Amino acid sequence: MNNDTPSLLRSNPLTRALNRVATTARALIRDRNGAIAVTMSLLFVPTVMVVGAAVDYARL
Q1: What is the pLDDT tens value at each position of the chain, 60 positions in all?
Q2: Contact call for residues 6 and 14 (beta carbons, < 8 A)
Q3: HEC per residue, the chain
Q4: How far is Cα 1 from Cα 17, in angstroms, rounded to an integer?
Q5: Integer Cα distance of 14 and 45 in angstroms
Q6: Alpha carbons 34 and 28: distance in angstroms, whole number
Q7: Cα atoms found within 13 Å of the Cα of residue 19, Cβ hemisphere only
Q8: CA 18, CA 24: separation in Å to the nearest integer?
Q9: pTM greater than the 0.70 cutoff
Q10: Is 16 within 8 Å of 24 (Cβ atoms)?
Q11: Distance CA 41, CA 37 (A)
């Protein structure tokens, strides 16, 4: 924070916690390591559903 920020804002535990969360979120957004694992985990459920629908449709 700036030096001209009131000391009440710098010492507020909620403000410090929110700053820590924001810093972590920015780091996670910038980080590209392991991005394929997240992508695959998000696409796994819809893929299984589509395959299951295709199998059900083929047995009609």
Answers
A1: 555 655 555 668 888 888 999 998 888 788 778 778 888 888 999 999 999 999 999 887
A2: no
A3: CCCCCCHHHHHCHHHHHHHHHHHHHHHHHHCCCCHHHHHHHHHHHHHHHHHHHHHHHHCC
A4: 14
A5: 37
A6: 11
A7: 9
A8: 10
A9: no
A10: no
A11: 6
